Amino acid sequence: MRRAFNLSQTRSRKSNDCVTDYAGPMTRILVVNGPNLNLLGTRRPDVYGSQSLEDVIALAREAGEVQRIDIRDVQSNSEGALVDAIHGARADCDGIIINAGAYSHTSIAIRDALEAVELPFVEVHISNVYAREEFRHHSHLSALASCVIAGAGTQGYAFAVHHLAAIL
Ligand code: DQA
Questions:
Q1: Cβ proximity of 72 and 95 under 8 Å
Q2: d(CA 3, ligand 1 centre) in Å
Q3: pLDDT, tens digit (0-9, with 9 covering 90-100), for 95-107
Q4: What region, left, alpha or beta, does residue 109 occupy, with left being phi > 0 and alpha being psi -120 to 50 degrees?
């Protein structure tokens, strides 16, 4: 099951009866944040800005509101938990937005999980990783991503929502 049906109850203008409208399918996106992103707002604000992870998720939700995107989110500092979360998305999500943090540069397990679930995903980096240390220039995820966003700050998560809304 990839799509949730969104049935909303509204009042019929004529009769004031309660009727059930079919408001179209709702798209579900899982936002996955990896290690150290729980520290957003306090960790290197010069690089990652002053918004907390909670603020970032709220930003993504706001970006998805008009297009009726349901945002779920998970953050973990553990590689295995991130792999499990990606596997879980297969059952009920249409796409993934992932900032795997440092695991982007090291984790073949996360890359393989994204490949296995066959969901379109956007890779997000808050900072411009290409303007930083060389070890951040390569990501194991990028070649599989539908879109890669780096250096747009936390706004990158909103751009990612818009991208998935356009292709799903
Ligand atoms: C990051 C960039 C990574 O190199 C780093 O390890 C992070 C955050 C970013 O959002 O810019 O943890 O993914």
A1: no
A2: 31
A3: 999 999 999 999 9
A4: alpha
